[in-house]
Amino acid sequence: MTIYAVEGLCVSAGGQPLVSDIGFTIGRGECVALVGASGSGKSLTCLAPFGLLPLPVAGSARLRGRELIGMSPPSLRHARGHDAGFIFQQPLTALTPHLKVGRQLAEAWRQAGKGRPRRTDLVALLDRVGLDHVDERLDQYPHRLSGGQRQRVAIAAAIAHDPALLVADEPTSALDATLRAAMLDLLGRLREGGLALLLVSHDLPSVARQADRIVVLEAGRVIESGAASTVLRTPRNAYTRALIEAAPHLSEPPPLLPPVGPPLLTAEGVCVSFPRPGRRRGRVQAVADATLAVHAGEGLAIVGGSGSGKSTLARAIARLGPIDAGQVAWAGRTLPARGRMGRGDRHLMQPVFQDPLASLDPMWRVRDIVAEPLRHLRPGLSPIARAEAVAAALGDVEMDSALADRYPATLSGGQAQRVAIARAIVTQPKLLLLDEATSGLDVLVASRIVSLIARLQHERGLAILFVTHDLALARRLCARIAVMAAGRIVETGAMESVIARPAHPVTRALVVASQ
After folding, report:
1. Residue 324 placed within a domain
2. H or E segment to which residue 309 belongs
3. Cα separation of 215 and 181, whole Å?
């Protein structure tokens, strides 16, 4: 039985075609994956027919036999609320930040006319998507959850009304390797009840084992489609092969890394805790007794699953987040507390965050964003010298100078991340903190960003503190690794030794997930 059928779908903007002549069908309990790099038209194809994008749409998209193209807005809202569910790429922005999880699930429940849910109904819904401590999670706000936990909440909200079709737009791109596999397995279990799944991703190898069929898009057109196993094993198109090869694997030969100097950044006995949510008393221990060191020119990877404490530890060390106890030193000198860090301390370490568009001021032009650290950390620079430094930083990250007057909203994800890197290096730091800096990018763009960082590492002798969930990606930049689980560093050592002989179960799971 066909649940969703698309034929001759076209989406345009300003008279220019963005998506042309797309067609596929999804049967009951079937999964079709739309795969391609950023800008290939995947999200346009899955969202525009449902009225979720204000763009002209032509062709046919029939959900349970009802034509969506040309449907009135009230009818489209009814179709979205009763027959379709949606999971989006960034669960933190997809969830309402000022509503607790329970309120958001109740809203999704009532949307389908189910009335007011009981708390036991919401607990069962979170149980269904495999969330832990479900009764406590209902009283938490989205920002208190890890990425994987937020995505499970988003999935629970999407299936609260028992839709016939689930549209998952990059639902795993920002998740760690083990969570990515778990999330795809969860979507597979949901299909067992007859749910049809439209899965959008840039990561062809990850989705191939879940999808029945794959449709590969490039520049808004279908360039290859077929059974998932066939497309992955014998791709006909060079673009499809590039998507497969861009994903990092531990089978790759180890890279040539720069020489390592004396210790730069050392941390001993770092502890971080947060108040428990809601009315509960006490504190949650996010990081416990963490000790590590980063040497000059060295890449150190802090690797772990979502919620392991790796970002909290990195931010505490870099004096960007709270710290309860422990000592942090730079070249043997103890660093002051976060609120007392001066210009001479701040310019030593600069961060690059996971979501580049969220970390860039949307009201500022690119040149002003890159210049901002200079105004604060090197206020004595003349306007001419500052402009020259900004131009040099943009050149170092291979950004076209014509983009300097653009706003972040007009940039692609890869361009925005290059701007974030330019902003980080413009003050000539000794260490870069990369907090999941490539996890929200497609595999082709992420590969280019990692190559860019590797070049800067070699040319400038930069030390790198690389926070990631992807062991294979970390290996491209880092010679040493610290594995975290439940707020503790459970294993450290040389990257190649840890990969070859992982001692801790968490490390072994990460190695398996990255192969």
Report:
1. no
2. none
3. 20
